[in-house]
């Protein structure tokens, strides 16, 4: 009969030779050290409230120790709801199988061996200077009026049939020490002339850089002496400076 009932309830038949209760209920939780409850016995506290309605015996048959099965904490909920490798607001961060997570937002960053980390003091803007794609601009004749953008590191010119009037402004304070590459990327005919203020070639100065063929390149570095900002030519490849 017991086996039939257990089968209908989808329970494993109890071991009749084992003493003690597996399930119990009542208005009062059994006192610690009470005899008669198997380890793992579930007690339903019928007079309980939030967090005090379900108990489990973590003691022994001879000396019970019922402890409440509490609801998950906010931290536990966040952990259970996290997707490995994906950073989500208000969720715990769980690394994927490669020990990685897709994105990290932090107010400070330190890198190094445990206990000997060194703070990264560079600003996001300074770190982004390493991203060449973000510092590359393409200039066509239609955009010549706006000139070459301050802070760009690689300038690609699409020359079309050639044009003049493109201006490279003086380097800013932020561009001192910055290397700037200007390359004529494409051209079908004619030439492209760039007006440059305070460009130094050795001990002389030039005001115009003329590009006649695709691939011609001018490499400059921003410099300052006293309060004067200027560009210094590091290399010209096919470019005419005058």
Question: What would you note in describing this structure?
Answer:
By secondary structure, the protein is mainly β. The chain has two domains: 67 residues, no CATH class; 111 residues, gp9 (Jelly Rolls). Helix content is 8%, strand content 37%. Strands 7, 8, 9, 10, 11, 12, 13, 14 and 15 form a nine-stranded mixed beta sheet that branches. A four-stranded mixed beta sheet has the order 1-2-3-4, with no helix packed on it. Strands 5-6 form a two-stranded antiparallel sheet. The longest helix is centred in the first third of the chain and has 7 residues.
Can you give keywords for this protein?
mainly beta, Jelly Rolls, 4-stranded mixed sheet, rod-shaped, 9-stranded mixed sheet, 15 strands, 242 residues
List strands and helices in order, with pairings.
Layout: H1 2-8, E1 21-26, E2 37-45, E3 54-57, E4 66-68, H2 74-80, E5 110-111, E6 118-119, H3 124-128, E7 136-140, E8 154-158, E9 163-168, E10 179-186, E11 192-201, E12 204-211, E13 217-225, E14 228-237, E15 240-241
Parallel strand pairs: 1-2, 7-8, 8-10, 9-11, 11-14
Antiparallel strand pairs: 2-3, 3-4, 5-6, 10-13, 11-12, 12-15, 13-14
